[in-house]
Structures are given as structure tokens and as C-alpha cells.
Amino acid sequence: MNVAEKPVIAAASLIGQRIQKKDAPEKAAGKTRYIQDMVVPGMLHAKILRSSRVHAKIKSIDTSAAKALPGVHVVLTAADVPDQQPIGVARDHLPLKGERVRSLRDEIAAVAADSDEIAEAALKLIRVEYEDLPVIASPEDAIKPGAPLIHPTPLDAHGRPQSLPPKTPIAFAGKPDNIAMRFDYTHGDIAQAEAESDVVVEDSFQLHYVTHCCMGVSGVIAEFDASGNLLMYSNTQVPFLHKREFAEYLNIDPSRVRIIQPPIGGGFGSKLDIYPFEVICIFLARAAKRPVKMVFTREEEFLASPTRQPVLLTLRSGCRKDGTLTFRQVHTLHDNGAYTSWGATTPFVMMQTFSSLYRVPACDYHTTVVYTNNPYAGSFRGYGNLQATFAIEQHMDMLAEKIGMDPLDFRLKNAQDAGEVTGQGMTFKSCGFKECITTAAERSDYRKKHADNIANRNARGPVKRGIGIASMLHVGGGAKIYPSDGCGTILKLDDFANVTLITGASEIGQGSETVLSQLVCEELGLPISAVTVVNNDTAITPWDVGVHASRTTFIAGNSAIGAARKAKAKILAAAAKKHDCDEAALDLRGGFVVVAETGEPVVELARLMRNLHFSDKAELVMTTFYYEPPSVHQDKAFKGDVSAAYAWAAQVVEVEVDTETGIVKMTKVTGTHDVGRVLNRLGLEGQIEGGVVMGQGYALTENLIVENGVTRNPNFRDYKLVTAPEIPEMDITFVESMDGEGPQGAKGVGEAPAICIAAAAANAIHNATGVRIFGLPFTPEAVYRALRGKSDKPHWPAWKPE
Amino acid sequence: MNVAEKPVIAAASLIGQRIQKKDAPEKAAGKTRYIQDMVVPGMLHAKILRSSRVHAKIKSIDTSAAKALPGVHVVLTAADVPDQQPIGVARDHLPLKGERVRSLRDEIAAVAADSDEIAEAALKLIRVEYEDLPVIASPEDAIKPGAPLIHPTPLDAHGRPQSLPPKTPIAFAGKPDNIAMRFDYTHGDIAQAEAESDVVVEDSFQLHYVTHCCMGVSGVIAEFDASGNLLMYSNTQVPFLHKREFAEYLNIDPSRVRIIQPPIGGGFGSKLDIYPFEVICIFLARAAKRPVKMVFTREEEFLASPTRQPVLLTLRSGCRKDGTLTFRQVHTLHDNGAYTSWGATTPFVMMQTFSSLYRVPACDYHTTVVYTNNPYAGSFRGYGNLQATFAIEQHMDMLAEKIGMDPLDFRLKNAQDAGEVTGQGMTFKSCGFKECITTAAERSDYRKKHADNIANRNARGPVKRGIGIASMLHVGGGAKIYPSDGCGTILKLDDFANVTLITGASEIGQGSETVLSQLVCEELGLPISAVTVVNNDTAITPWDVGVHASRTTFIAGNSAIGAARKAKAKILAAAAKKHDCDEAALDLRGGFVVVAETGEPVVELARLMRNLHFSDKAELVMTTFYYEPPSVHQDKAFKGDVSAAYAWAAQVVEVEVDTETGIVKMTKVTGTHDVGRVLNRLGLEGQIEGGVVMGQGYALTENLIVENGVTRNPNFRDYKLVTAPEIPEMDITFVESMDGEGPQGAKGVGEAPAICIAAAAANAIHNATGVRIFGLPFTPEAVYRALRGKSDKPHWPAWKPE
User: Fold this and answer.
1) Contact B39/A39, CB-based, under 8 Å?
2) At the topology level of CATH, where does A311-479+634-795 sit?
3) In this predicted complex, what is the ipTM?
4) Cis peptide bond prior to A152, omega within 30° of 0
5) Which residues form the Aldehyde oxidase/xanthine dehydrogenase a/b hammerhead domain (chains A, B) (predicted)?
6) What is chain B's alpha carbon radius of gyration, rounded to the nearest angstrom?
């Protein structure tokens, strides 16, 4: 377009607009190619034989018939891979089990064949002889004196010493008991604080097993090239960490491992660790000298992908009559399952909520994570915070009730403010917490409804109405857990002013491609369609620590902005030189370089790019940027400002409780989130709505039933996800606290919306019925029994170490 | 490794070493996945129906039976794509022919089906009615007055005006004759120069059809995403040019076209233009809403991929008795075939040889390119230079003989030197031409053998021995033909000091990945294995004009060095800061930062990278660079220094001619190339050896036999490539003229080695037999007839326009 034809271009911002996700058309059209759809020439198909016993010694494995089946290329057992090493957060987990199985998911053998069907048939031909061992089905049993040991020796594989260091400095496996991890945290003087308390409450809470239920089940393709370099097509959320880990595992230089991520059908934290199937797939590819693809069935996904960690939690909380919190003492007992993955580290996030959601002068937190023969827990959106918030936010209501204070006023009195530094060392540079509480309360008419529900409870029929509130604090500016929490960006403009944004940050469905494009376009005055995002290949993209801790918008966003601003500076300098004007007076808008003050176009950006490129002193605009947040690692006492920013929210849940059936219907959720600043309003709403529904499932319907080590409902008929008709009305609003470090002021919000729902629902049920339920989920049976005082205590026993 | 353990690291260079090609293990293991191997989920397979007549009107096309065949998804004819536009260098070529076919390769219909077999079966069901037109089978016939017109109207498709501009400013199609292009070049005063000549020779030469014979036949996969963006998996040598061209073609923004290059099984110039099959594949994908793959059969590759352009050439050359060249006058008549591709522009390269290989005061060059009903010619390694050199270098021998001067002395007397500016404006900044001649001559014992062969000719038996020399000049520093001749590079180092080199320059088997890696490693003191090259995706890589004109090492090499030097500067600055030493005193060697003078290690580079990354002021080393050579566009008189450097070579060919059978055996090739500087000695030798064999095929065995428009030998049984047993002994040496602009002093050499062989062979046959043969190839029949004075004149007629 000729500049002369172009009228003055007004300043316009993409920030806060509703921007369609860049991957939406492909996904809506069913054209997205997940790992399930991928075909690598020459690839084989693999299946895993899992244990049929919960806890047993393996006496023998006979694979001869499987090996003889036509179309079978490789059959592997532990004996075939003497170089296998333990994986997992505590390096306590051999991918192929040769001597002992510790849970029903345990991998005993694997087959690579010409088709899935042949591989499946081969599994049926493998004969395993077991000798059963006593099953430890609960953490309470695991810590009983004299309990059989689940890991009797540090490592039982081939008697070799453990060669890889554990992923965290905390020692896990190999203790002469079933304790996988134990730690203590404290700030303030608990004894004195308790002495100063007017009211103290103590309760135990039981949190159950749920699992991620990603629509895209786990899968991987592994292949080695002719030089022995490994290429993994993997759904991992942390490609750069896994690149290094696989290299360590294979004892090769990390440059020889390349991870390409196909579009990922949901992560939610489930893809933060290395799991046996990935390593087994590598072994199969190595043995077959062919690419090998392994994709879980849905049943396998339920049985062998990680879970949210079950917790028994005893909370003791105190306050003064005036509503000032005094102390909080917590003991948690975690069911680690048979092996240690990230679930074992969720207490570190729970701790933040205990220590810092509200101002509390003294906090004492003791945690114990124990091995059982149950499924093992990984990381899961919210990462312990759902469990902690479930307990704390019920106690907030209970304390308020005890001192006769309105639950809102009680929360507001103790809520954090900007500028505060907590006992754990978190520094709240931006904090819209109080505004979240008041906004959610006002929009839901909480005060009136809460009082009315109590006043009119008995006058109502068998269906009681209730309203409950809960609040949350979560990291919103990354979390400095690894040596670096940063992200790199490479940006190039082409001859048509289209941008390639090469970012380390992965898209796992959360919309990061769209938000990053938006941030770049905001700097460069371009439409979203001008950006192509490259984000799925460790050989191409700069480093990023991975998708976790609600960090991508904040960290990768700041990185993308950094690269875009460098590009903008180059562009304006070139325009100023070419068109003989003052660089500082120029801006980029609507695909043009304009005079900032008037909006008068100077040159079309695409034309300028070609001028730059097709000249004697030819140049392309290419920039790079690396962003590392100003957060710090926690010290040995778990203190330190671990995130560059913190997200806040309050959610009000309204329910109808049918006292005759125990059925709880969630009718409305009113949520207010301090997101720093709204970037993509549409994406943010989607993120919040999805999180609310996930929280709703956690509260009401989802329950992975594990009985004596056996998962009883590994399918979508018996494991009940919330479906569209049950989704409540939602009223979602945002507090824009304009975080000083955040990209355009924004903070991370990926995990936040799932966190409060169960806690708020518990408070709402209590508001409706006067009955408080301390265990999840609120199934009709559980609620029915609770309403009749028949809750089976052993299902949520008080627990505290001696 | 601990620095303390590391001894002093001596300076070492990779330059001039023998470095294995990075892609060799995959290729040798048969693991490389060419487009033939690729499977895109949901893809269809496509085939093209080609004309069964050489020149005809199409009366009707009936596709109904093909459409009804089960498994057929789409059948297209010209009538189904009313938006098709002409392609090709002159925009004279509609992909699907609806009204007229002009050669046997012409595309009439295309089918996309579930399998190749179904598509093939569907083709057989398509009925086409033709009305034959007179065939023009030679350029001589095409320019006869009153010859039927091959393009009777500017464009016969739907009567629409031509909407895309031609690729070159020279007007081609639509003239009221069969002439596709005509131009004239001159420098100096021909008449005066001829008057001053003591000797003048004039001969006509006939150059034949050969074709590239890439081991990987042509193929493409086209697909549109849900937003209508086009992704092409394409073997093109010029992805960025084609991205733009396909976008123009589809009338969409170039950002919506992405080209990914699978490993390419040979290019040699054949993949520089867009061909109908590519556009047809796009049409099929658009209609099917599915990915569509189209791969040629070998027969199709012979029939429908481009050829080297046949030429009738009349050369008139003069010199003085003292051996000084006086003038050169040339007329060339080119068989364009039915459509215009790059073949039509090869005269521009021929011109350089005529005007500038030797110092010649006057040069006059007239060329005419005419349409025929024959296959059409594209670009092909050497790009006209084989044809020009074949004529010139025979005349050099003939002139020398006429004035009784040794052919070597005659060449040396007229050879260019560094510093010279030719009549066409080329400036030879580095020039090892004379050293090439003397080295090749000395190493082959040329003078003695040449004299002996003449002296002993009659004394020998029926098998005569001959030796011949020829020289060449070719661009060696790119060629400024497009608005830019540059290349961009993005470089990143990871935490383990491994490098990702993102370059615009494609690998087509020539070894560019290896040489570029080497140049980067030379700067950064790393082993070749430390580099991963990313070079095959227009969405990721920065711009490059493409693989042609022997430019990649020079242009992309300088670009890679630029990025690597920026990285080195960052690294040394960081090391100096961290280790408190003088940046200028540091160097990079063997994976370490060292004190340059002593070689004493300061810090392991990988460790420094991690220190940089895992620090509060975290950083990654990422750099970008764009290199544009200092060459200029030619002016309207074809004058200008079009390349940043020029390559030189002399090749001595030795033959045995069996005078009883006409069989010519090439026994030895002694070649000396001015390559500026040897970078990868192994790669360079491979490049030279391959080129020599290609030249040998051109000289002796390869001949695409086209009779009356029909290609008679579209297969490897009848089209004779040189095979291993026939390959001569080779003695390859290099002159290192250390080009000032070249990367580490190097110049491009990709095309050079094929250029002189046929010319030197002609001189060798003359040396053996006393008979000079002016046409190619030197088949037994042709040689047998020539030795008996029975050469069929019409096979190489004298031709000159009136």
C-alpha cells in the first residue's frame, strides 16, 4: 500500500482484547496432528506388559512365545537392559522391573512389533511367575512400626550403586523405613502464638486420588539415527530438562538428544517427569534399530500416568477474638505410591499457602511422604495448593464462626497487601487480594445469601442452598526451582513484515502461542496473523525451563517482549535514517512506521523491510533475548522470594444440596482473579473456566478409586469427569494490579482457577446444611452419610506423627 | 573437565582438514528420509496424465470414468482450475493444458487418490481427443520463415491477460514468431580487431540434450491447514523465492506459505524453477482438502524434469602471430523447448566465458532462443558454461596450432591475472588461473605427452592415446541476479557449548552443512560434532536466495562466520569478566577459553555457558548475522562485477581412442582448481570428483535422444550415466589464492569441475587422432564416423542468423 493512500493511524492496543487462539482453527477442524496421528517411516509399535500383582517378587519371566510371534521385532525385560538405571525424582524407579513389582502399574516386559495388535497379542504370550508379598494399601499402614518395606534396599537392580543424582537435594529412597521424604518448616513462635489465641480449631482432612485425564493420552516416538543420536517425539512439558535427563540416562552428550513436541493434548503437570514408558521406548528403539512408537490406551492412561497426591492433613489454627490470626500448625501425611515423582514435592507449594496466604505470625509445618503399593503421584495443576486450600479455607470459616465474625471480614482482616513480606520470605510487589475478595463477594451477593441460607435453612425443603468463599495465593511470576527459571527468544522479520517468534516456551493447549504473539505484535504494531511461533524443537529453540508453575506468560512473555523491543529499536532507527526523521518521534502501528504524535504514516513496515534487505548494506531484522526473573532460590529453611510475582483469587461457589439424596449441584461460581493485567481476555476466560471445571470435578465427581492397590475405575464410565450439562454458571472478573515486573503488567494464572473450588464448595455445603465435610469428593454417598452423622472416620482419620 | 587437569591447548585449525559430511552416516545407512519416504497423515497420492501427442489441439477431455473409480478423490483438468496462471521464467506455461499441448510432457489432467496404483489406474480411464498440429523438432525449423507458431497468442488460457510479471526483465513470449529471447553483447571494436588478426578460425558446434539424473526424483507434498495456509514439503533449491512465488500464484500473503525441504537427493540446478507438477499438487490439495503427495517415476523424471539446454554455436576467433587473442565473435541458437525456464538465461553465463575467460580486446555475442516442441531446458550445473567452454577451448588449441605455438603457452599468454577488469566489467580480486594451468600441465606431464602423442600417433596400434587441456572461469562468490544475493544466520549455544546454526542456506547434498559447521567451529574452537544445522524451513531460517551459482560456501559461509564471531566476542567478554583477565588476550580452542599466547586453559566453554546461564544476570549466547556480498548487478549492457569472487580451473583429460570401434576411454583427469582456500578437503574432493564424472558423462555417454519431439530413452538402460568402472584415475589439486572476501579465503566451486571435461576431451581426441569433433557426445558411433570423415553435417550444422 502506498503511504500516501493511508490515512492517519490511531494508536490501538491488542492488550485486553479477545484474541482467538492461533491453534483453534486446526483443532476445531480436527486437523491437528497429535502424536497419535504421527507416522515415522519404518516405525514399530510398542506395548508394555504390566504387573498383575500389587506387590510381589518376580520368580520368572518367559518371553519365548512372544518372541516367536511373527511380526514381533523385540521383546525386552529387565534382563535385556543391564544398563537401565533408576528414574524419577528420587531415582527409586527402574523402568523395567526384574525382581520385584511394587504396584499394579509396574512394567515387566515390552514388545515392539509391526502393529499394535501384534504387540498386544505378544504381551498375552509372556508368562510371569510371581510370589506375592504383603500389600501396603495406605500411608497409615506404611508407617506402622514393623511394616514390611517397599524399598528394602536402596536399589534392587543388579546390585549396582545408584549413579544418577536425585533431582532434588532432599534424600528420598533407601531409608530403613517406608518414608520417602520428611521435612519441617517453621516461622514465628508457635507456643507463644497459641498461648495468645482466643480460639483454636483442629481438624483432619482427607484428600483423594484424582488424575489429569488429558484428552491426549501419553505417547512417545523414539528413534536413533545412524550416529546414535536420539530423537524423541514427546509430549513432555519440559523438553530442555528431559533432553538433559535422557542424555544422562544414556550417558551421551546432551547435544545428541533432540526433543520435538507434537501438539500436546493436555498436560496439567502430568508431563513434568520422565516415566518408564519413555525409557522403555528408547530401549526398544535401540534394540530394534527402528523408530518405535508407544501410545497408551485410555485404561493405561488411568493406571500408569501419575495422579494428584492423596494427603491426610491435620490442621490446627488459632486467632484472637478481634479476628487476628495467631498461628497455624500443620501435619501432612502423603501417599507417595510405590515410586517417587513430583507428587512428593507438592508439600513445598502447600507450605506457601500455609505460611503466606494470610498474615500469620507463626506457622509450623511438618510433612511426611511415605511409600505404599498404590499408584504414584506426580505434579498436577495447583501442585498441592488445592489440598492446602481445602483445609485452610474451611478453617477460616470455622474460626470466623467461633468468634462470631463475618467470614469476609475475617478474611479481609488477615489478607495480605502489596508490600508485605511473609514469614517464608515472599514479597508481594503487586497484590489485589482484598479486591478479589470484595469483588467476588459483591458480585455474588455473598453476605446476604450467606446469612439468608443460614436463616432460612430449616424453612426450605429437602434441597438446601449454600454459598461459600475461598481464596488462594499461587506463584504468578515463575518459580525459581531449577538453576534457571528463564526463557530465550529469537525473533526475525521477513521481507513482508511477518515475524517468526522462536521461543523456548511450549504450547500445551494453554494458549501461550497466542499470548506471546500478542505481546510481540503490541510492540511491533502488527496483527496477530503476522506471527509464526516456533516452539517445539530443542534443536531450534533457545532454552526454557518448561511449562509449569503458571510461568509461561510471565517469563516467556517478558522474553518475547525483550526481543520485540530490540527489533522495534532497529526498525525505527532504520526508518529514521532512511526517511530522515527523528527516531524518538516514530512508532509502529497497523503495519506502518508512523509519526507517534500524529499517527501519520512514514513507510509501510513491509516496504521498509525490503528496503533494508534489498540494499547495498543489506540487513534483516533479527534479534535475540533472554529473560531471567528477579526471583531467588529458597534457602535451606525454605525461605526466599521464589517467584517474581504472585497471583491471587477469591472464588465464591453456590450449591444446592439435596439432603434426601446427598446430591450436590454446583449452580454458580463467581471468581475474581488478580491477573496483573488482562492480556488475551478470551484466552484468560477459557483458562479460568477450564480450571473451575477441573476444581469442580475435584470437589464433586472425580475419584480414582484405589482399593488394596487396585485401581477400580480406569475408564470414563466409572471415573466421572464433569461434563457440559453440569458446568455451573460462571461470573469471572479480573483485578488488574499491574505488576511492575510482569509483561504488560500481567501475572501467571494457569493453575489458579482450580485451587479454591473444593474449599469454597465445602464452605457452601456447610452454609447450606450446617454440616462440615472434611474429605473429598463430595459424592452423593459421602454427603448423604455426612448429613446423617455417619461419616466413616477411617476414611478421614486424624493423623499426627508421635 | 576440570581446568586444572587440562594441559595447555595448542592452536589447531579445522581449515583444510578432511571432514566427514555430517549427513554421511544417515545416507550410508539408508536411513535418510527423502520425500519419497515421507508419510503425512491423511495424505492422498497424485499422478499426472501427460500428452500423448507432441503438438496438438485438445478437442475434448472426458474424466467421468476416472472420477467414478473407487478411491479417487479428485480429478482436475484445466477447466476445473479457472484461476490457474502461467508459470515459468517467461510466464508462458499453464500448469494444466486445456486447449493445446506443445510437447509430450504436457500436463492434461491430474488425479489424487488413496494410492499411487489407484491414481495410475484412473489416468488410464481419462479419454482425450486431439487434433494434431505440425511438429517443430529443431530450432533451425522453428526460425524458418513461415514456421507454424508454437505460442500463437500471448497466452491461450481463457483469454485472460497475463497477471504475473516475468521473472527477468527480458521479454519472452507472445512475439509474432517462435523466438523466446534474443540479445546482443559487445565490447571492443570487432572489425578492427579482426583486421589486426593474423589468424582467424570459425566453426560451428552442436551441444546436445542431457538431463540431471538426480537419484532422488522430483516430488512434493502440498497441504493446506484449516486457515488456508499452504505447507509444501519440497525439494526446491530456492525455498525463499518459491515461498514468494507460490504466494503470488495463490494471491495470498507470503507469510501463509511455508516450505520445508526434506533431504534432497540431488539438485544440480534442476530445482530452481517452479514446475507444473508442484502447482498441480497444490490444486489437488486445495480441492481434496487433504495433503497430497506427488512423486515422479524415473521415466517421468526423464520426460518432465528440465534438461541442459541444447545449443548450436558458431564461434569465430582470431589472434596475432605472437599469440595475442584479438577478438571473438559468437552466435548461439538455443532450443528452448515448448516453454521458458531458466535454460533460456544460460546465455548470460556463456557470455562471461566468451568475454572474460581470456583477455580478449573485442567480443561480440549474439544469441537467439527459440521455441520448439521439444522438452524444455532448465538450469544445470555450469549453466551454459560447459557449452561455451567446449567451443572456446577447442578454438584455443586450434589457434595455437595455426600459429605454431604450444597450447599451454598460448593459454598462459592470454590468461587473466589478479587485478584485471574484463570487458564485461568483472574484477578479478583473486586469480590463480595461470597456476591452475601450469600445475595441471606439470602434474599430467602435458607438454611431453601432447608432443609424444602427435609424434607417435601413426606408430601406435589402433588404440591411440591423447591428452587435452581446457580451462574455465565461473562465478565463485555468488551472483547478483536477484535483488539480494545474501544469506542470514542465527546461532545459539546451549548449556553444553553445543551450537545450533540456523542458516538460510539449503543442503542439497553438496556438503554445505559440513562446511558451515566447520567455519563456525573454527571461530569457536569446537569440534564439528558440536553443531546442529537447521536449514530447511522457511518459517524458521533467515532468508537466503537459494542454492545456485556455486554460492553457498561463500555467501552462507561468510554469514555463518559473522554470527560465530559475534558469539565469540560475547563469550570472550564474559570469560574475561568472570575470570578477571584481558579479553583481547583470550582465544577459544578445543572446547576451552584459553590464554591465546600460551594456550593455558581459563575455563571450559560448556562450564562458562552454564555459569552465564545459571546466574542472576542470566544470559544465553545467541547471535544473528546477515551477509550481503559486495557484488553489483549488471547494467543493461550486461556489464558489471556480478560476483564477489571468481573461480578458475584447468583440467587435463587423457583418453584412449579405439579407432576400430570409435570407443573413447577416459583414462585420467588431472585437475587444478583455484578454490581460494581449501576448507573441507574431503568435501572438496568429492565435489570435484562428482563434477568430473558429470562432465565425463556429458562428453562421452549421456544423451537424451529427442526425435521429432519424442524422448526415446527415458530410462537408465538407454540413457547411459557413467558408472564406477568407467571413472578415470583422478589427480585433483588446489590453488589457494586466498580470496580477500571469501570465508577463510575460500571461493565457490560447486559447478566448476564439470565445465572443462568435454572441451578437454575434444582436445585429447584430436591429440590422439588428429581429428576434431565439434559435436557431443563422443559416442562410439559419432567418433567412428568422424574418424572416417563421415560426420553427418546436419548433426552439427553451421548456423548464423542473416
Assistant:
1) yes
2) Aldehyde Oxidoreductase; domain 4 (3.30.365)
3) 0.94
4) no
5) 29-134
6) 28
